[in-house]
Amino acid sequence: MKIGELASKAKCSAETIRYYEKEGLLPAAERSPSNYRSYGDGHLERLRFIRNCRALDMAHDEIRALLALMDAPDAGCGAVNDLVDEHIGHVDRRIRELTDLKQQLSALRQQCPSERALDTCGILRGLASMDAGALGKRHTHLG
Amino acid sequence: MKIGELASKAKCSAETIRYYEKEGLLPAAERSPSNYRSYGDGHLERLRFIRNCRALDMAHDEIRALLALMDAPDAGCGAVNDLVDEHIGHVDRRIRELTDLKQQLSALRQQCPSERALDTCGILRGLASMDAGALGKRHTHLG
DNA sequence: CTTGACCTTGAAGTGGCTTCAAGGTCTTGA
DNA sequence: TCAAGACCTTGAAGCCACTTCAAGGTCAAG
To answer: Are residues A44 and A91 both part of a single domain?
Structure first.
């Protein structure tokens, strides 16, 4: 199967597939006489696995780790469980960050409930006088 | 004041300040005879405003829009309110996306409550067989 | 007069792609 | 038989908001 067919079966673009190959997520395909990449069902399975991980917002490093664990012949899945737990932790932290953020924004928005002149606008005043250090930095790969 | 002093007063790095200048968020500073950037209190105010906006995860485009509104002499703040409301919408959507995501991940995690052999690990099975199309794409600049 | 803190510019790296440019190959139908 | 158009190739650049690096210039203190 050529790259376009694989792409449509995995619902991603051919460029993404080439990118995954370059990144080492997907093993290099064999080549046809005309130098086109040639894929089998194993590639499709692996690509679907990767796309599912990405749909869950896992970073490439996390996916690489999962793939390596999967390829280890005699391992149990304890490390898989740990990796997923850690990723849930990432998502959870980011949700908490954004919830705090929304709180801040809502408070700011209430400073100016109606249209008024710029120099009395509570939002602009708030943005000018806030203490930026109050919020922490982002800790995860989820934005 | 030189760039380092401005940076420490605004709690950001000198590189960030130079970047904001290049991006047109911060007006270009005057230069000393030795070609060092020289800043006044107006720069500090504007920079603090920008950093506060960034602490609230506003994109540069949003901040640029706010600054332009602020500089408009006779405008009211209705557009400011709208912009903030829209940004709150971004944050809200992202929170909902991540909440869905966490749900998916938790369900996945429950597939494999304990250590077991790889080929029966429910997580890996789930990742291999999920339908990636089930989750939507990211719509905002918040990750 | 040297050390070291500060400043300058420009380029490259981050992540996970997408888009573009400039071609080569293959299939189909006139 | 040959031309159009769909598909493939590579490599580079763009996205965002920075950070880091390299290679130097400037300045105050000891």
So the answer is: no
| Residue in A109, A142, A143 nearest the CB of B85 | A109
Size of the A and B interface in Cβ pairs below 8 Å = 155
Task: Output the six-digit token pair for A123.
Answer: 């939002």
A51 touches strand C (CB under 7 A): no
Do A109 and A121 meet the contact criterion of CB atoms below 8 Å apart?
Answer: no
Provide the domain limits for residue B85: 78-135
Instruction: Determine the average pLDDT of the residues in B40-56.
Output: 95
Residues 6+ apart with CB under 8 A from B55: A130, A132, A134, A135
Per-residue model confidence (pLDDT) at position A29: 96
pTM attached to this predicted model: 0.88
Q: How many domains does chain B have?
A: 2
Instruction: State the Rg of chain A over Cα.
Output: 23
Nucleotide nearest to B2 in CA–C1' terms: C7
Mean pLDDT of successive 10-residue segments in chain A (143 residues)? 96 96 95 96 96 93 93 84 94 93 92 85 93 67 77
- Closest nucleotide to B5 by C1' from CA: C6
> Does B72 reside within a domain?
no
Decide if A97 is inside a domain. Answer: yes
Domain annotation covers residue A67: no
